[in-house]
Design goal:
CATH class of the largest domain: Mainly Alpha
Strand content: 5-15%
Structural class: alpha/beta
Shape: elongated
Radius of gyration: 50 Å
CATH architecture of the largest domain: Up-down Bundle
Helix content: 55-70%
Number of helices: 17
Length: about 475
């Protein structure tokens, strides 16, 4: 559009163009060139910062710590030679390009060596989520690298640098995939190595492409003489490399979209078939890679007709080609039967416990009965100090007139030289019947000078 039209008839458009104009804050071309050239070099401070960043990133991946990984990306100096490669190609500065490639190659090799050594000696060899997320790059990673790189080179070209570069380092994530590639080498899992290194290549190529685009838009000066044939050759090679990198990422991006679509449809499908004729869905597993859905039901066993009905419903959720796998948990009938058996076992266990308790009580009672003679002696001596010993026992009394013998308790009391009176013996026998709560007691007496084998004036009951 002619300038006069913009200024007179379209002032609003001119105002918008002024807002988005990159040249208003553009730094001096010499300053930009020196900044990019300085950041290319990997030696001294930059070299050690790179090594430390690699170790920190490796540790973060190893312990699955996002915060540590972000810290490593912030201190990483890998953006320098990548911007240098893009800038040098845009300005056809081949000596600077070779210098940038040399330093970038050195940085990549150093990073792989450091991360491989770390993961070789680390006791933790599990691939956590932070590490796995760097092994399947897609077209979305291309877009992140492209726009992140655009932000980075614009910030370098501006007088107001701001804090864009650290943000670009985090967004484009150069360190984590390089360290993940080292993990793949250390553990011999080359799937991780190639996947992560492909992501690293994507980030590198599109950050460099961003530098080329902005350098040409801002018309950075060309510092060498280059003919049109050489320019065309360089542009052709850039196009070939970018196309070769983008095509696989488009395929992986399409696969990612399909996986997400399958997972979303499968989730809706699973929610729709949670209850089928008294069968309850206990667990489901969705595998978007294999396009399979595993369903675990509890309840009455699913019939073939019910399974076919469930599979038919998958078509309404765009899952006609999904592989539906059925698993049967415990049916409610089985659970009820198991509960009945459990209750029966509990009842039998309670019965056995009661029997054991009764037996224990009987054993305790027998033990106590063996010491009844001691108890009788201790209590009766208070009333009759002349009694010095007591023998207690239980026996059976047989009689010709009855077929079943009677249980009797036999007590033998020994007195000293002082002879017990008949009235005292009567009182003792009445007291024993009350105290021992028994009417089948037989009491015998003996004097101290006579032994238990021979009773003098022996008495049974109240008869002497």
């Amino acid at each position: 559009m002619p300038k006069y039209l913009t200024m007179t008839k379209f002032p609003l458009i001119q105002k918008i163009l002024n807002y988005i104009d990159l040249t208003t804050d553009l730094d001096d071309f010499g300053v930009i060139h020196k900044t990019i050239e300085k950041d290319i070099i990997f030696k001294g401070t930059n070299l050690w910062i790179l090594v430390f960043a690699i170790i920190v990133a490796s540790i973060g991946l190893n312990i699955n710590s996002t915060a540590v990984i972000i810290g490593a990306m912030l201190i990483s100096p890998l953006m320098g030679p990548i911007n240098g490669m893009g800038y040098s190609l845009a300005t056809y500065n081949f000596p600077l390009f070779r210098k940038a490639v040399k330093n970038f190659t050195f940085a990549v090799v150093a990073g792989l060596i450091a991360s491989t050594i770390y993961f070789s000696i680390s006791p933790i060899s599990t691939a956590h989520s932070e590490l796995l997320s760097r092994t399947d790059p897609t077209i979305y990673d291309v877009l992140i690298a492209l726009f992140g790189g655009l932000a980075g080179i614009v910030a370098i070209s501006s007088k107001q640098k701001g804090n864009v570069i650290p943000g670009v380092a985090i967004a484009t994530a150069l360190m984590p995939p390089l360290c993940t590639a080292g993990f793949g080498l250390a553990t011999g899992q080359f799937y991780y190595f190639f996947g992560a290194f492909y992501l690293f290549t994507i980030n590198t190529a599109f950050i460099a492409l961003s530098a080329i685009i902005i350098s040409q838009i801002l018309k950075f000066p060309i510092r060498s003489i280059v003919d049109d044939a050489q320019k065309n050759k360089i542009n052709r090679w850039i196009s070939i490399i970018i196309t070769a990198i983008v095509i696989p990422s488009i395929y992986f991006g399409y696969a990612l979209v399909e996986k997400e679509k399958f997972s979303g449809n499968a989730t809706e499908y699973v929610n729709n078939i949670s209850v089928i004729d008294g069968n309850y869905l206990l667990k489901s597993e969705i595998n978007p890679v294999k396009k399979s859905i595993t369903l675990l039901y509890g309840g009455p066993y699913l019939s073939e007709a019910q399974k076919m009905n469930i599979k038919e419903k998958a078509k309404y959720f765009s899952l006609g080609k999904a592989h539906i796998i059925f698993q049967q948990g415990l049916s409610f009938d089985v659970i009820a039967r198991k509960n009945t058996e459990l209750e029966n076992l509990k009842g039998e266990l309670n019965r056995v416990n009661l029997l054991l308790q009764e037996k224990n009580e009987q054993i305790d009672s027998l033990k106590k009965r063996n010491y009844r003679g001691r108890m009788v002696l201790d209590e009766i001596k208070i009333l009759y100090p002349e009694i010095i010993s007591c023998t207690y026992g239980e026996s059976l009394l047989f009689n010709d007139s009855i077929s079943k013998p009677d249980n009797v308790e036999i007590i033998i009391l020994s007195a000293n030289k002082k002879k017990l009176r008949i009235s005292d013996k009567k009182k003792i026998e009445d007291w024993l019947k009350i105290r021992l709560k028994s009417n089948s007691i037989r009491v015998y007496y003996e004097n101290k000078e006579n032994r238990p084998s021979r009773f003098k004036n022996a008495r049974i009951g109240t008869n002497e």
